Amino acid sequence: MVEHATENRSVGGSIPSLGTISPLTRSEHVTEDSNHFAWTEEGKWHWIGRVGWKGRCPRCGQGPLFRGWLMVRESCPVCGLDLRFATPDDGPAFFALCLTAFPLIFFVVWLEVAYAPPWWVHLLTSIPLMVIGTLASLRPFKGWLVASQYVNRAEEAGTRNLTRKD
What we know:
Blueprint: H1 26-29, H2 44-54, H3 91-115, H4 119-151, H5 160-163
Helix pairs in contact: 2-4, 3-4
């Protein structure tokens, strides 16, 4: 059952209750107040996983995070969040190798040990499985890392006064 946002008219407008946010829209859920995020209903870890894996803006959850395959947009077209803070660097490749490629390597080794197939079986099964599996997981991992950086306010040590205006 989906609960809909309740209204609070005492403030002079329609403000949703944070406990019943559904669905996400910019006008109702994104404010300039840094303490009001759309993820307050479901918890930040669930929010990071949901918007990160879907490639959505970490603030509003609506706008696309990527322009192209792995290029992060400069800003969200829905809420205007400046996405230039996002620096996942080699993180997506690390997670793609550790969490995707290594289990696939175990499959390839098992296939070889259990059945000893000819080389062309590996050419037709193992190599495409490794390439597709690793490349397909890069985008979700990158979205997850960008969302984590935003929600947890991650920044490089010693650079707080250079970029952030809190």
